[in-house]
Write a structure and sequence with these properties.
Elements lengths: L3 H16 L31 E5 H7 L5 H4 L5 E7 L2 E6 L15 E4 L2 E3 L13 E8 L3 H4 L6 E7 L9 E7 L3 E11 L3 E12 L8 E15 L2 E14 L4 E3 L1 H6 L14 E19 L3 E20 L15 E20 L4 E20 L3 E2 L4 H4 L5 E2 L4 E21 L4 E18 L4 E21 L2 E12 L3 H9 L6 E2 L7 E13 L3 E18 L17 E20 L5 E16 L3 E6 L4 E2 L9 E7 L12 E10 L4 E10 L2 E2 L7 E2 L2 E14 L2 E10 L7 E5 L16 E4 L4 E9 L1
Parallel strand pairs: 4-7, 24-27, 30-31
Antiparallel strand pairs: 1-6, 2-3, 4-5, 6-7, 8-9, 8-40, 9-10, 10-11, 11-12, 12-14, 13-39, 14-15, 15-16, 16-17, 17-20, 18-19, 20-21, 21-22, 22-23, 23-25, 25-26, 26-27, 27-28, 28-32, 29-31, 32-33, 33-36, 34-35, 36-37, 37-40, 38-39
């Protein structure tokens, strides 16, 4: 039986052959997409994928503390707040089931560069966003690795229209405050700005405070009427803690702020100091034949320090109740540097783009013991030097040098007045060179991966069109997944797997977009088939079975697959109307198409292994399950965002917003279902001019009705002696409830 992607390929190819006899007339100019900083030729008319764009003006007017508050307005895109200013980003439900530091399955692209943002976080100055564009479906044909389900493309501000000066201040719940100071200038030869911002909050949850400072600057020089050069820099210092989860529904109800009482769980890692730096230089040139050349050189730095591993016993073997008793200091340093160049040409029947993407990504991890501690309880146990970990001991020192060499391109061709075909292809050669200086281990691995998109748009009327595409995404295995046993040869429970293959996603999509005199709309149906899903063969969080020959060691394998299918709808009216509406809805049905080796640790995981559990207090065993056909956890079937605005007059705007999502399972076994929820938000904007200055004041209330619900709820490998998850096992982040924010800014 043919796979779905083979059938879809045949249908699209047949359409191309049947339409090749038509001539193209009066099409105007056909354009191609770009991945670089300035997309001068962007056009949605012939776009074969479902895309959504939020302008900088719309983003600024929302006055959000966190970017996820705006991204919720895009159908198919969901965000998961995990505490403080931390959140995870998902497109079409991909990677909702993961939550321990894995790559997000979404390419986060800032000024043309796919930035390595762990777990889908977006580290960007919220006051420096020109636009946010979301491309849904496999997007590796443009951006390479990790674009399994799409890409979030953020362009920062530049150009003469952004060379204004401003001051601003905001305040809100949990002692939230924001300060902004900006200066800019423009003339016929150049433009520039310098902007500094600070956002800080005590946080709703205990130990969820943060203080983030940004310094941005861009300088654009017009070489002549057809070319310019832009230099940019963004520096940030992010001091933040990491807390917010509680254990079980009872604790969530009684202790929603996750205050530590000396006996409960403590977050595994905390106290982050993150220093980021982004530098880039871009050259752009327009040619007479309606073509464009761009060259972008960049370097992005990430220097992160944090503590982890809260200790249980001091050197005397006594229990430790100090919440700050963390054993390990972690120093993570990353450099992303590279050069991208693209040449695009547009014409009346054909357009093309060719790009080169060269990256040199360097990652360095160093860990050492902060304070001496004992790994066992009791004076007798801690008298044994083997159970003592000594402060200052270096526990890890490794580095990975990842080199990416990629060629990619796009061709659009009009087969008739109404039919345009698009083809994309990309080839990535990715080499990971791992060096563990502590254990004198050197390992090298290369992956060669091809990605593509093939699609079409058909114009039904001047205001409506159909589109369809097949696209792919991929993600290569991580160093730890490939080389766990080699990296730690003394660990008898973990085995390497040098034969792991990249995960591949196949996206199939058909959509209908158009506009009427009242609104614009875009509706799309999609299927994402994901093959070669990488997971440990003993489950994500279960221990190895020490007595079973089959499960003697944990080993990462291409263990199975998933299928996410659904429908997305976006409807927007003109924001200049007296009353306007934005509506975003998505339906997602996500299931495991193959997952026949899921495992749970039953009983006391610190006890003695037994094949048959008889005393859960002192013993544990491992139960294996086949989850094929189960619903992927943390993927609500229905999500919706409704925003209604009322322009009272030219100065006063009132906006009400409803966010809603249906229930979802918290666990892979589908035993715990979390109820759906909906919240109401209100926003008032007032703008006026006074003596040539533009004044803007706003007030915002999120969760107006102060509803109690979970931002996220997760069940890991913990279970009762019967192998069933229960509500006491859940890791829960409680929503902070009603939140107030207000502010004032002046532009001149």
């Amino acid at each position: 039986m043919l796979k779905i992607h083979q059938i879809t390929h045949s249908i699209l190819l047949s359409s191309l052959l049947m339409s090749s006899s038509f001539a193209a007339e009066n099409l105007g100019v056909i354009n191609v997409d770009s991945t670089t900083i300035d997309d001068r030729f962007e056009s949605k008319q012939t776009e074969t994928s479902n895309t959504s764009t939020i302008s900088g003006e719309k983003f600024d007017a929302a006055h959000v503390e966190n970017i996820q508050q705006v991204l919720n307005r895009i159908p198919g895109l969901t965000t998961e707040v995990t505490g403080g200013d931390k959140f995870k980003l998902h497109i079409r439900g991909v990677e909702n089931q993961r939550y321990m530091g894995e790559k997000p399955g979404v390419a986060v692209v800032i000024d043309g560069v796919p930035v390595f943002e762990r777990t889908g976080a977006v580290n960007i100055d919220l006051d420096n966003i020109e636009s946010i564009k979301v491309v849904k479906g496999g997007a590796s044909y443009l951006f390479g690795e990790d674009a399994l389900s799409g890409a979030v493309i953020i362009t920062t501000k530049k150009g003469s229209k952004n060379s204004y000066s401003a001051v601003g201040y905001e305040a809100g719940s949990s002692n939230y405050q924001k300060y902004l100071l900006r200066g800019g200038y423009a003339n016929e030869n150049f433009n520039f700005y310098v902007q500094g911002t600070e956002r800080k909050s005590d946080g709703y949850w205990e130990n969820s405070d943060y203080d983030t400072k940004y310094l941005n600057s861009k300088f654009q020089y017009y070489i002549d009427d057809t070319s310019d050069i832009t230099a940019g820099i963004e520096l940030s210092d992010r001091i933040k803690d990491s807390h917010g989860t509680v254990k079980g529904v009872t604790e969530a109800a009684n202790n929603p702020t996750s205050a530590y009482n000396g006996t409960g769980d403590r977050d595994y890692s905390r106290m982050y100091d993150v220093q980021l730096a982004k530098y880039f230089l871009t050259y752009a040139k327009n040619f007479e034949n309606n073509s464009n050349l761009m060259v972008n050189a960049y370097q992005y730095n990430d220097d992160t320090n944090f503590v982890s591993s809260p200790i249980k016993y001091d050197t005397a073997g006594n229990k430790v109740t100090d919440e700050d008793a963390y054993a390990i200091n972690n120093d993570y340093f990353q450099i992303q540097r590279g050069i991208k160049t693209e040449y695009r040409v547009s014409g009346t029947t054909t357009a093309g783009m060719f790009g080169i993407d060269l990256r040199d990504n360097y990652y360095e991890n160093k860990t050492n013991i902060l304070k001496s501690y004992c790994t066992r309880m009791g004076a007798t146990a801690c008298s044994n030097p083997a159970n003592i970990k000594t402060a200052g001991t270096i526990t890890g020192n490794d580095e990975t040098d990842e080199n990416v060499y990629a060629l990619y391109g796009e061709i659009k061709h009009a087969l008739s007045n109404d039919l345009v075909m698009t083809g994309n292809a990309r080839f990535d050669s990715i080499t990971m060179d791992y060096d563990d200086t502590l254990n004198s281990i050197q390992i090298k691995k290369t992956f060669n991966v091809s990605s593509y998109r093939f699609g079409t748009t058909y114009t039904l009327t001047p205001s409506t069109s159909l589109y369809a595409n097949v696209s792919t995404g991929f993600r290569t295995p991580s160093v730890s997944q490939l080389f766990s046993g080699d990296i730690d040869p003394t660990n008898t429970k973990v085995e390497s797997n040098h034969d792991l293959k990249p995960e591949i996603s196949y996206n199939y999509e058909i959509g209908f977009r158009g506009n009427t005199s009242y609104f614009d709309y875009d509706i799309a149906a999609f299927v994402i088939d994901r093959d070669d899903y990488i997971m440990a063969n003993v489950g994500q969080y279960s221990s190895a079975d020490p007595l079973s020959s089959q499960y003697a060691k944990t080993k990462y394998e291409n263990i199975g697959g998933m299928r996410n299918k659904g429908v997305e709808l976006a409807l927007n009216t003109d924001r200049k109307d007296t009353i306007f509406l934005d509506f975003a809805y998505s339906y997602i049905d996500a299931e495991f198409t193959q997952y026949d080796n899921f495992n749970l640790t039953l009983g006391n995981s610190y006890g003695t292994y037994v094949p048959t559990l008889t005393n859960p207090a002192t013993q544990y065993t491992i139960q294996h399950y086949n989850l094929t056909g189960n619903t992927v956890p943390r993927v609500p079937k229905h999500t919706a965002n409704i925003s209604v605005g009322y322009n009272v007059n030219n100065d006063l705007l009132l906006t009400t917003e409803i966010n809603a999502k249906s229930s979802y399972f918290a666990d892979e076994m589908n035993k715990i279902e979390i109820a759906g929820q909906s919240t109401l938000n209100l926003l008032v904007n007032y703008t006026t001019k006074l003596y040539g200055y533009k004044l803007e004041a706003f007030g915002r209330i999120d969760n107006v009705l102060n509803k109690f619900y979970y931002n996220t709820a997760r069940a890991s490998g913990d279970a009762d002696s019967n192998g069933l998850f229960n509500a006491g096992d859940l890791s829960i982040t409680v929503n902070p409830g009603r939140v107030y924010t207000a502010g004032l800014s002046v532009k001149f």
